[in-house]
Each structure stands twice: as structure tokens, then as C-alpha cells.
Amino acid sequence: MKRKTPPAPRSRSHKAALVTEYDTILSTLVQLLETARRTAARSVNAVMTASYWEIGRRIVEFEQGGQTRAGYGEQLLERLSHDLTQRFGRGFGMVNLHQMRKFYLAWPPQKILQTVSEESGIRRISQTPSAKFDLTEIGRRFPLPWSHYVRLLSVKDEKARAFYEEEALHGGWSVRQLDRQISTQFYQRILLSRNKAAMLTKGAQAKPEDAVTPEEEIKDPFVLEFLGLKDEYSESELEEALIRHLQSFLLELGNDFAFIGRQKRLRIGDQWFVVDLIFFHRRLRCLLIVDLKIGTFTHADAGQMHMYLNYAREHWTHPDENPPVGLILCDEKSDAVVHYALENLPNKILAREYLTALPDKTLIEEEMVRTRHLLETRRTIKGDPKPEPHKAKSKGKRTR
Predict the structure, then answer these.
(1) Of 362, 366, 296, nearest to 331 (Cα)?
(2) What phi-psi label fits residue 191: left (phi over 0), alpha (psi between -120 and 50 degrees) or beta?
(3) Is there a single domain that holds both residue 101 and residue 218?
(4) Which of 290, 274, 211, 228 has the alpha carbon at shortest distance from 38?
(5) One domain for residues 210 and 250
(6) pLDDT tens track for 223-273
(7) Could you tell me which residues are beta bridge partners of residue 277?
(8) Angle value at C-alpha 80, between 74 and 85, nearest 5 degrees
(9) Which domain does 143 fall in, by range?
(10) pTM given for the model
């Protein structure tokens, strides 16, 4: 019986060539998927922006529909907000509907007609109140994501707003870059500059912090809200694991805690914020807002928590409940800091009662250190790659 000749061992150069070929196909596939994700996000944004413009148009035209509707504007928005929220969930609060109405007024049909070119293939949009608008057609007129237009609406000067819109479109600005340019008054500085062309070129250059990943584009709060999808915002696996464990830990401390929600998103002005955990304390009859920070405790963390508490007291607290209390958890490699935010309480007696009923700080600190050590040990045993150094976390998110 004739033996089969074993294959000749592959040379190192051949193996190196295979590795290079694999790296090439991997990089091309990564690029393809990133492009596809961005394209999908842009498609959703175009339909969303067109829909919100159309909602604004119909609201304005209903308000202008005769004397019988005069003064009905605020009541209309309140009723629409309630009914649309019941039907579609988040995304149709009073603030949102006001923005849609404002969006239409800032970009009315006649303004669209002024900027539409015949070469673009976009048909002229009728200005008659009864016209039915095609969302695809409107979407082509608004090539920027909805979050860009939300930020542009905060610019009062129409010329400045038009400048930022044009530069954002031509320069491919992310919403972070747009926000930075508006916040630093780029338009006003351009007007005062002697060499406007040079300043335009230099000032419009993106910075590393302006970059938005495909994942962030898809997880844009506006997109998730529009599509009715659930969202979670943990910035690392470690943070996500800590939040989950602390949720269980607090519930195990006794029957006083009732779980309300995890990573609840809220919007203040044009910014998004995320609260890690919300409980209701039955004995104290108040909400407990828990926020986890990966890093060192700073005065900014306390200030942000007080902003959360003010928001919770106004929007989440029922009339028969006590003011909410905040719990800030700052986690570091070798230490942990727990801080209760009680300064918003109306009197010192209530503050003392809260401290008596709430979990002991030392107990929570010890649990955070123990949990982190356990999680990192598990990662080492599994051989998982060590996470990159995590910057001090800011929950404030600029809208996209």
C-alpha cells in the first residue's frame, strides 16, 4: 500500500503572507460594516427629520385654522403629547413637540424653495396648506441628522444659524463639532477676523473628541426614541457589571427598596443624561437616584447629582412623596467613595432621618471594592483582554 506523501511544511514567509491577506480582508469587512451602519443611521435620521418637520407643519396649520382655534396652541400640544406618548412611547413630550413646531417655523416651505436647486432632482414643494408632503422628498432637503437641527434651533441669529448649517454640511461636522463651534461663537469670531478664509480653514478642523463612532450614531438617543427601541448606555463591561451587581446588592439589604429602573435617560435642554439606577424607598417614601462614576469623586459629580434631584423632584416625584435623595458611587482601583446628596432636603431633621434609614456608606464602599476585585479576577481567569484605561465618566451626552 502506497503511503501518502505528507504536505510540505509551510514556510514562515508563506504564513506571514496568509496573515497579511487575512488582515486585509478583515480591515475591508470592518470598513464595509462601519459604512453600512453609518448609512443606516443616516437613512433613519432623514426619515425622522422629515417626519418631525411634517408634524411641526401640521401643528402650525391646525393652530392657524381660524378663530375657533385661536389660543388653543398649548392645549393642543398637551393633548397631542399625552396621546402620542400613550401610542408610541417616549419622544413626544411637550419639549419635543415644541421643537418640531419651532423646526417647521425656522425652515418653512418658502425657505426650502429658496435653497432647492433644479439639478438636485428635488421637486418643488407646494406651499398650499392642503399639500401632502412626501417624506423622502423632505428628507433630501434636510441632509443633517435631527440632533444637528435641534442644536441649530438654539441659535437665535438666522444668519449665524444658516452659516453653521452650511459649514456642518460641507465640513461633515459631527454634532459634537457643531456644538463646539456654536459654543465658542465661531460665526462671530469669523466676522471679526481679518483673514476669514484662513480662520474658516483652521477653525473648522475636527478635534479627536468630535469623533462619533458608528455605534454611537446608531445608539443616538433620538434614533432609539424614534424607533421605539430600548437603550443602555454603560461605557464599559466593568461599569455594566458593577451596575447590575449594585442593583442586586441594594435590593438584598432589606424590604425597604423597590426597584424602579436602570439607566433611565432624561433630557435637560439639548443634552441627554443617564441615571444608572432608580429605587423607591418605602419607609422614607422617596426616590433614591444612584449614579456610578468610574474615577475620582469631584465637585462636578455632586453638582450633576443635584441637577438630577431637581429634575426628579419636578418630573418623577408624586405630590405625597418626600424629596428624592442621591447616592453617588465613585469607583477606583484601590478605593471607593460613597456620597449621599442631602442638601436639597427642606430641613435637617429630615436629613438625619434619611441617613438613619439609608444603607451605611462603609458597607457600600466595601461591597464596591469587593465586587470590582471579583470581576477583575474573573476576567483574568477567562483570559479576557484588560479594558482600556477609563476616563472619569461624564453622563452628560450631547444630542445626536
Answers:
(1) 296
(2) alpha
(3) yes
(4) 211
(5) no
(6) 777 777 666 655 566 677 778 888 888 888 767 888 888 888 887 776 778
(7) 262, 290
(8) 130
(9) 30-119+132-227
(10) 0.63
